[in-house]
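Email to the structure team, subject: DUF6285 domain-containing protein model.

Hi all, the expression group asked for a predicted structure before they design truncation constructs. Nothing fancy, just the tokens so they can compare against earlier work. One-line instruction: predict DUF6285 domain-containing protein, return tokens.
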Amino acid sequence: MNHPDAPELLAVARETLMNEIFPSVPEHLRYEVRMIASAMGIAAREAKAGEHVIQEEIALLSALLPEIASTHPMTLETVRQEVADAIRAGTFDGQGGKARELQKTLEKTVVSSLKISNPKVAGIAAKQRSF
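Reply from the structure team: attached below.
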């Protein structure tokens, strides 16, 4: 594997931006520089873990509707659509186990996505999860 890889390059670029360039940026542009640095952090985390998060979400959502695995290609979009259709059809209505299973699954997928887009919030969300 080539080193540095994309996440490492983005991390070094972000660190340089914030430590070397940011202090000399005029006040009226500091928000924009912070926004760029944040985007670089998200891109680095996504390059490192994004495919794993996608595969994890596919597995979690597919487990809610095992019958879809044999009828559709297992892409994130198709699995999300099938679950959305099942929600609309009332498959998970009621207070039973299916509703709770859906809630747990959706909470897990949100926290996994937050680990990429906003790790600080993901830590808070993980502590507050009801399971």
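The helical segments are 6-21, 30-64, 76-88, 97-117, 119-128. The chain has one domain: 6-128. Ping us if the truncation boundaries need rechecking.
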